[in-house]
Model the fold of this input.
Amino acid sequence: MPTLPRLELCALHKNYGGRAVLQGVSLAVGVGECYALLGPNGAGKSTTIRCIQGLTPLTSGTILLDGLPLAQWPAGGHEFMGVVPQGDQLDPDFTVEENLWIYGRYFGLPKGQIRQRSRELLALMMLTEYAHRPLQVLSGGMRRRLAVARALIHAPRLLLLDEPTTGLDPQARHLLWTRLRTLQREGVTLLLTTHYLDEAERLADRVGILDGGILLAEDTPSMLIRTHIPGDVLELRRRDGMLPDPENWHEGRVAAAERAGDTLLLFDRDLDPARAHFAAEPQYQLLLRPATLEDVFLRLTGRELREEAS
Amino acid sequence: MNRQNSLFPGWGALALVRRNLLVWRKLLLPSLLGNFIDPLLYLLALGYGLGHYVGRMEGMPYLTFIASGIVASSAMNTATFEGLYSAYTRMAVQQTYLSLLATPLQIGDIVMGELLWCAVKGAISAVAIVLVAAFFGAVDWAWAWLALPIILLTGFVFGAMALAVTALSRSYDFFMYYFTLAITPMFLFCGVFYPLHSLPKLAQMLAGLLPLTHAVLLLRPLLTGHLPSQVPLHLAVLGAYGLFGYGIAAYLLRRRLLR
Done:
């Protein structure tokens, strides 16, 4: 018998007034898996997280936790899920440690268990020396790590993170990623939203690309790249600010191309002819690089697609 | 659908009361100081100053008369402030309610927790006044202990009405309307400073519809050594305001938070 997915979203629809925010989103996150929902602002990422929390009533669709609809779990399944919301929602009236204690009481945990778990989580999130400090002295990265610690106070099976590293500096992001990977090794299932492609690429076992409330593609980061991008990428920009390749020389000469602002992206296994052609013109700046998730993202949610859609 | 929607309170409410109590404890000294000094000023200024010219009212010294009225209005004011400004801060600024909804707590727990806390907070300030008034000999202790449940009920009622207003508010500015149109008229026309029968008949009837009137009519006798009359009527009016206030606040808060 195959193991049930930890979390399963089945055809989620959500309309606000006449506007469809989710248009049949279905996905499954396996036990111990890290799944990243990637999408531009307004794609429906946060709405999806809110729906799982029961904060946004669905227009239609079902959400299953360990195979059982959330509506049938006591307290909407909250005893088994932790949430790291956008903007932390920490309690500014309390110290670092008190934030964990107070939160543990909302889950009805006994005091001794809360104290012990708080010590472990503060150590894991490298906040032990700040335990007695007020929240106001914490940096953005520390606050976010405290929010993760708080979400883990009741040892949930599933951790939801809504844009966990938005607004953090690179060091803080790397530290948080390291801690999230530790959690994953310990068997916690992670569902996170992000609009950072590197975050999805480095953290997630699987990535779902969400745009306009529709899941456009879903796979491991490397398979997404292989499926949607043929080979490498050549980035073209012009020093004078004009759009590159106005005569569309590239058409028919490379496997695929995409315009993004002042940049022309050419995709192919062999980009040497194109590079040779444009290198001859002094106005051009060239960058040949391997394909990344960002290219997949641009191809799937990029300008051309939106024009087709409208 | 989701059980998150429950408007009925559970034990989770007490976890929120405890949270608010812990915050209050951090600011204990300035908070208590305010609770004692405020009524002291009122009692001295009105009880002695005005009382000097008024003399006795309804057979008791004026200080004694207004002391019990101010006990009631203070429970109203404190609970109202808590249900408006403090609750709005938790709801909109600190997003405390959203973080609570990520735990097993539900809308009903949040509303009940906030209202119980409004009741306790109102009682803290009202009891402070009872103590100050007692220092001036303005309290008869025969039935005074029965005042405590009435004070708690008064705080709950005004907390519920305030929380309903909070759930509708887009900013702190909105609360001025509620004070001007609801709280201040009650403060002035519900028998805090003079007996109701000094008002014209119509005004008396209107005052009879307002919750503070009934809180005063229960608390004044209890604090001056008598048992109140028409107890079931007063309790029924306060109970109705509390019950409807709770229902409306819970409904509006759910509409605001779950969307």
